[in-house]
């Protein structure tokens, strides 16, 4: 379904971003990977995906805290692939602390990576998308873009902001063939959440298994983690022609969390 499309997926060396990049490549899109990590491991991932999917897969190491590097990520993909048709703003980090103890540098980093990077990437991608009259922007927000929990102020502010930014872009460029939508996952068992499981298990003096089920999954009625493949399936749908009239929307995949 994505034959002849080219995609940039930020934060795609791990977790949800890697699953989206993998599904996009398997659906025929050329893909630009991005994210942090060990260079040799990233190259292995890139080469394996390129081979398995039979499409061009590249990697750009832009740091999502650096606007100039983000612009270069999009420009490099456009030069290599001839277009950036799909942009997935996925890179994100978490830090858990009460507001009065929240380190200011962590606040700034979370706002930069989770929110401002989506602005910088979108700004860089829009001229080409408008010129070609086709663009699909998929922003990976969170259940925490819709509701709050204690001790995650920066993350929650960034994700509420990302949903707002999604709507702003959607209404601004709707007549140019560009769509912007957000996905709001509940808890997905990625490295980002594994750290929280370990911290909670240590604090409560219980096993990681119990911490996952009884503490982390407490707000998620199914008491099961969402999978990265389930998020990727929605991201593929939003990039497909079937989603042409979906714009400015947010889709919860959270086992019923935000239905409470
Ligand atoms: P992850 O830690 O597995 O992946 C995060 C990715 O972002 C990695 O590729 C990492 O290298 C990259 N990244 C981090 N900082 C970066 C930087 N400065 N520059 C470039 N890349 C950077 O986490 P994940 O769970 O897959 O998270 C992906 C997105 O999904 C995030 O935006 C996260 O907030 C969101 N999300 C996750 C969950 C969950 O439960 N895991 C739930 C809702 C939303």
TrEMBL record:
InterPro entries reported for this sequence: 3-OHbutyrate_DH, NAD(P)-bd_dom_sf, SDR, SDR_fam
Keywords: Oxidoreductase
Pfam families: adh_short
Claim: Oxidoreductase is one of the keywords in the record: yes
EC code(s) of this entry: 1.1.1.30
GO molecular function: 3-hydroxybutyrate dehydrogenase activity
Top-level division of the source organism's lineage: Bacteria
Enzyme class label: oxidoreductase
PANTHER family reported in the protein's UniProt record: 3-OXOACYL-(ACYL-CARRIER-PROTEIN) REDUCTASE (PTHR42879), 3-OXOACYL-[ACYL-CARRIER-PROTEIN] REDUCTASE FABG (PTHR42879:SF2)
Membership in a protein family: Belongs to the short-chain dehydrogenases/reductases (SDR) family.
Name of this protein: D-beta-hydroxybutyrate dehydrogenase
Species, as recorded: Usitatibacter palustris
Top-level taxonomy: Bacteria, Pseudomonadati, Pseudomonadota, Betaproteobacteria, Nitrosomonadales
């Amino acid at each position: 379904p994505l034959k002849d499309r080219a995609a940039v997926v930020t934060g795609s060396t791990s977790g949800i971003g890697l699953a989206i990049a993998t599904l996009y490549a398997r659906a025929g899109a050329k893909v630009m990977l991005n994210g942090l990590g060990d260079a040799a491991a990233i190259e292995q991932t890139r080469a394996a995906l390129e081979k398995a999917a039979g499409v061009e897969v590249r990697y750009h190491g832009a740091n999502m805290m650096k606007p100039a590097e983000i612009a270069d990520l999009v420009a490099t993909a456009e030069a290599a692939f001839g277009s950036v048709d799909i942009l997935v703003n996925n890179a994100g980090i978490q830090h858990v602390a009460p507001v009065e103890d929240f380190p200011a540098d962590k606040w700034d980093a979370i706002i930069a990576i989770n929110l401002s990077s989506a602005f910088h990437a979108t700004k860089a991608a829009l001229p080409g998308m408008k010129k070609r009259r086709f663009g699909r922007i998929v922003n990976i927000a969170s259940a925490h873009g819709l509701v709050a929990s204690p001790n995650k102020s920066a993350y929650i502010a960034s994700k509420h902001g990302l949903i707002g930014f999604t709507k702003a872009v959607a209404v601004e460029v709707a007549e140019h063939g560009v769509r912007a939508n957000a996905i709001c996952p509940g808890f997905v068992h990625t490295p980002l959440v594994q750290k929280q499981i370990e911290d909670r298990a240590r604090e409560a003096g219980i096993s990681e298994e119990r911490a996952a089920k009884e503490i982390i999954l407490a707000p998620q009625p199914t008491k099961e983690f969402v999978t990265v493949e389930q998020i990727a399936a929605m991201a593929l749908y939003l990039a497909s022609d079937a989603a042409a009239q979906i714009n400015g929307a947010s889709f919860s995949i959270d086992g019923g969390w935000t239905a409470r």
